[in-house]
Each structure stands twice: as structure tokens, then as C-alpha cells.
């Protein structure tokens, strides 16, 4: 059975949306259970298709389902809120770059993220008890999901999606591929990482797929 570009966009949208959710702090039991339900739904509905990109949703689902919520909270907070280590593990682009490359680079990158958001008339808003920063990894992945949804709507209505595709490429190169792979390696190699060792391994596979996919567009 042939796969259409709309099918591919549907898988890409769902995968970015899932990873965005995985890096939000699910403090309440309700939020944590909602994440489990989302993982189960995506695994059952799209897991087979997502696996063709190199991402194993079932492995992520399994490691989270087999973990106590308390273990999840301890691991997330120690890795990503305390964020200590040789390199900062806080999953916020400007904070990581500030420590590694200085204020000038961090400020430039942060302002560029805001510029992208404003181009879509987005204003960061408080959506949970622990709202992420505009350049938090969850926010960045969510924005890519939004750009893909925009492309889907344009193509579905027969309109030109060239600019949206270019925005996807530029945003991914500037704000995903530039720092997340290095950060992923730090998380995977951190002895405190168990759940997020698996999550980050699959995110690494996803970014490799996306780099190749966007490079061919």
C-alpha cells in the first residue's frame, strides 16, 4: 500500500507531539496517567508506522508503565530541574548555551525562537502548574508539531506549503539539531538516567530520521 505525504505528515505530527509531552513535568497523578493513556493510544494506532522511522514507541511505553510515578518524579527533577553535571542537563536551549557558549549566543538563540513564535502569532502562555520556557525542549518540539500541522492543512486544501517546509527546516537546524543530540548524549550517560535513557535514545533516532527527511525535501 502506497503512503501519501499526508500520511507521513500525520506520523511526524504525532511523534513530535508525543516527545513534546514526554519532556513536560507530569507532577500530578492525573497528568502522569494522561501521559500513559497517550502512549498507549499512539502505540496502538501509529506505533507500527512510527517504528518505520526508527522510533520504538513500545519501548518508551514499557519503561514508563513499569516505573512508579515517584521514581519518574525523582528522575525528572534530579536530571532536568536540578540540572547539575559537567554540562547543564536542564532541557532549555538558552540556559544550556549560556553555560557552554556565553550570554551573547544564548540571547541570540532565545530571540530567534521568539521570532519564530511571533511569525505564527503565538504568545507563550501558562498551560500547567509547571509551564515550560519558550525554548524548553518541550516547547520547541511542540512548535515543530504545529508547523507540520500547518503543512498538513495547506496540502489538504491544495495550497502551496513551500514556506512552511522551509520554516520547518530552518527551525529544526537552528533549534533542534544544533544542541539536542549533544544534550541527549549527556542524559543517556548520566548514571541517574533510567526512564529518560530510553526516551532520549528514541528521541535521538527520531532526530536522525528528521535530519535525513528534511534534508531531502
UniProtKB/TrEMBL annotation:
It comes from the Archaea. InterPro entries: DMSO/NO3_reduct_chaperone (IPR020945), TorD-like_sf (IPR036411), TorD/DmsD_chaperones (IPR050289). Keywords: Chaperone. The keyword Chaperone applies. Gene3D superfamilies: TorD-like. PANTHER family: CHAPERONE PROTEIN YCDY, DIMETHYL SULFOXIDE REDUCTASE CHAPERONE-RELATED. This is Cytoplasmic chaperone TorD family protein. It comes from Metallosphaera cuprina (strain Ar-4).
